[in-house]
Amino acid sequence: MAQAKKRKKFFDVEIPIINKKTDLIAYNIEELNGKFIIYDLSRLLRGKNTLIQLKIKVDNSKATSTPKKMWLLPQFLKRMVRKGTNCVEDSFSITCKNAQVKIKPFLVTRKKVSRAVRKALRNKAKELLIENMKNENIEEIFDALLKNKTQRTLSLTLKKIYPLSFCDIRVIEVEKFLEKEK
């Protein structure tokens, strides 16, 4: 006897961080549990070429997603860097309320500067980001980055050391989620 073919269907997946829904195709909704999607935020952020990676979690036949990683595309960063400027980059981990996060800030100065100024900018940026993010959870951190709050406070503080033409977080990635303390 012939077996009936299974047919794939579209399932709604909520993306609460940006208040949007997207459709994913699968045989059943449980198949989507643990899958990753990459969502382009360029239109939402008015031309800032940003991608976000989200992990899908299925509860009671309802799929929602949580942010895992967000990064700026290299061609966008290349447009920001001009001749006669310096780039200041760093990479470090921060332990926030519910996860350990790897952050890579990206700063571009207006003119060429000395190594001491670049080091001062790098150290102050690291100090500020650690101070601001250690008492927040992942959703708050990603929300502040999407609304440009973190970048604005960082830029205004670093301007006192040396004025920047561009200040942003190049990559933010959740390394591991911490267990909830009881």
Describe the structure concisely for a colleague.
The protein has helices spanning 74-80, 115-133, 138-146, 149-158; strands spanning 9-15, 20-26, 36-40, 50-59, 62-72, 87-89, 92-95, 99-109, 164-177.
Protein described:
With 182 residues, this protein is α+β, with helices and mostly antiparallel strands. The protein folds into two domains: 9-71, no CATH class; 82-177, Tetrahydropterin Synthase, Chain A, CATH 3.30.479. It is 25% helix and 40% strand. The protein has helices at residues 74-80, 115-133, 138-146, 149-158; strands at 9-15, 20-26, 36-40, 50-59, 62-72, 87-89, 92-95, 99-109, 164-177. Strands 1, 2, 3, 4, 5, 6, 7, 8 and 9 form a nine-stranded mixed sheet that branches. A hairpin with a 2-residue loop joins strand 4 (50-59) and strand 5. The mean pLDDT is 93.
